[in-house]
Amino acid sequence: MPGILEKIEDAEFLDRAAEAGTKVGSKLVPHGPVKDLLTGKWLGHPVHPMLTDAAIAFWTSAVTLDLFGRRYERSAQTLTGLGILSAVPTAAAGLADWVDSIGAERRVGLVHAVGNVAALTAFSGSYTARRRGDSRKGKVLTLIGTTFLASSGYLGGHLAYRIGAGVDRMAFDRLPDEWTPVLEETDLRPGTPVIGRAGDVDVLLYRGTGGVCAISNKCSHRGGPLNEGTINGERNTVVCPWHLSEFNLCTGEVVHGPASAPQPQFEARVNGGKIEVRTVRGN
Ligand code: FES
């Protein structure tokens, strides 16, 4: 399997279709409250992996009941229908994540999506056949759907655990526990953000009306450079230049997605003419 996965990751011929798909997807799920809902701003991490559990649970339960003969055919039909219903928000959440992907992540995501559409089509056919009383055809289509589901689920695992799609880009960075000097105080003028370096991370420093604020400069969504984004002084926020996530400059809180994880926040103080930062506990 790893060989196949590498081939998909490197399959540049998929880029045209992926480009077209992300363009359509961006129109279907534009930047705004619906995308915030689907990408998990309210949850603190992506919604799609959690929603997949429902569809998988319904459909695998239907397959299991099919093993026990005619007695459970009605229940298997109901579970198949519930799986189809739960697949709709699951697909919408996956699409909202996928439109911001590039490169290998986007290619694997495309194949993952095609597999899921094939699974959904097979389960929909199964439900229709079962309703018409053709349980044999319904069971065959359920098995076909399960095969597609398992394959696309494997790709979903690869996306999450090998490619790191949806992983907080700050998750593995070491943040400074001790006060660390990052900048001469005179280099930070009100309203103009400046980058300082603390340990392994770039820190975005900003002097607003409430004093000096500091958050990580690398966007938690896909790693965009916040210092190249747009500062909104009135709202005390910065908008990432890559996919327009908006963060509070002092707390790191996500104001608008698609980011779901907040930016790590630092305490800041002036000591001997230098600005020092350290991690806020709980980051
Ligand atoms: S990298 Fe996507 S919003 Fe910042």
Outline the structure in words.
- It is a single chain.
- This protein is of the alpha+beta class and 283 residues long.
- The chain folds into 2 domains: 2-163, no CATH class; 180-279, Rieske Iron-sulfur Protein.
- It has 7 helices and 10 strands.
- It has helices spanning 2-10, 15-28, 33-39, 48-66, 73-98, 103-131, 135-163, and strands at 180-184, 194-198, 201-208, 211-216, 230-232, 237-239, 246-248, 254-256, 265-271, 274-279.
- The strands form 2 sheets. It has a 6-stranded antiparallel beta sheet with strand order 1-10-9-4-3-2, with no helix packed on it.
- A hairpin with a 5-residue loop joins strand 7 and strand 8 (254-256).
- Helix 1 packs across helix 6 (103-131), helix 4 packs antiparallel against helix 7 and helix 5 runs antiparallel to helix 6 (103-131).
- The chain starts with a helix and ends with a strand.
- It binds FE2/S2 (inorganic) cluster (FES).
- FE2/S2 (inorganic) cluster is lined by residues 100, 219, 221-224, 240, 242-243, 245, 258-259.
Q: Can you tell me the residue ranges where pLDDT is under 50 for at least 5 consecutive residues?
A: none
Helix-strand string: HHHHHHHEEEEEEEEEE
Q: Report the mean per-residue pLDDT as an integer.
A: 94
Give the total of beta strands: 10
Total number of distinct structural domains? 2
**Class by SSE composition:** alpha+beta
Strand % is 15-25%
Helix content: 40-55%
* Count of runs of 4 or more consecutive helical residues: 7
Measured between the Cα atoms of the first and last residue, the distance is 37 Å
Biggest sheet, strands in spatial order? 1-10-9-4-3-2
Shape call: elongated
Biggest β-sheet description: 6 strands, antiparallel
Q: Indicate the radius of gyration in whole angstroms.
A: 23 Å
Ligands present: FE2/S2 (inorganic) cluster
